[in-house]
Design goal:
- With 183 residues, the protein is mostly helical.
- It has one domain.
- 39% of the residues lie in helices and 0% in strands.
- The radius of gyration is 23 Å and the shape is extended.
């Protein structure tokens, strides 16, 4: 960019909304709407993620992934019911398949009232940090494909810098090999 006029110090020259906003991946138990830390005493009725309150649970920023996880829970519940109807073991809280593996969204390791009785105490507050919130930001990016195709197209044009990272790693490996020979 080239300025066509003098720009004053601290002058605002560009405003752009982010394509996606999500929780910091190394923090634990944060509201997916306002990103404040939460104690787990309130969980979204739709997706069971810890949230601040009902207002945040119904927020626009949280709506797409809430709908996604709600549908995933419904599919899990249907699969559990089908398994039980087929003569599989009826496990009330564990939701296990006949082979003993978890039937719910175990790939995301969801610790929620719907999926794990061990993650809640008697008072209903979470005693285990929810680690699956790290998937929320990439999920929000992917959900833009349906909800906002123009923004998704812009996201899709971003560089991943995979080639640069591979070159750096190759250089590091080469240097390490040299040091090993000298040692």
């Amino acid at each position: 960019m080239v300025a066509t006029r003098d720009i004053d110090p601290l002058e605002l020259i560009l405003i752009e909304d982010p394509a996606v906003v999500g929780p910091y991946s190394k923090s634990m138990n944060g509201c997916l709407q306002c990103f404040k830390k939460v104690d787990g005493s309130f969980c979204c009725p739709g997706c069971c993620f810890p949230m601040c309150d009902e207002r945040c649970a119904g927020g626009a920023r949280h709506a797409d992934e809430c709908d996604f996880f709600s549908k995933a829970h419904e599919l899990t519940d249907q699969k559990q019911q089908q398994t039980q109807e087929e003569g599989g073991p009826a496990v009330s809280n564990g939701r296990r398949r006949p082979n003993g593996k978890r039937l719910h969204l175990s790939a995301l390791a969801l610790n929620s009232p719907r999926t794990s009785s061990a993650s809640t105490s008697r008072a209903g507050t979470s005693t285990t940090p929810v680690t699956s919130h790290v998937c929320v930001t990439p999920l929000r990016m992917l959900l833009k494909k349906k909800s906002d195709p123009k923004t998704f197209a812009k996201i899709n044009m971003l560089m991943d810098h995979a080639e640069e990272r591979a070159a750096v790693q190759k250089s590091i490996n080469f240097q390490l090999a040299k040091v090993d020979r000298l040692a």
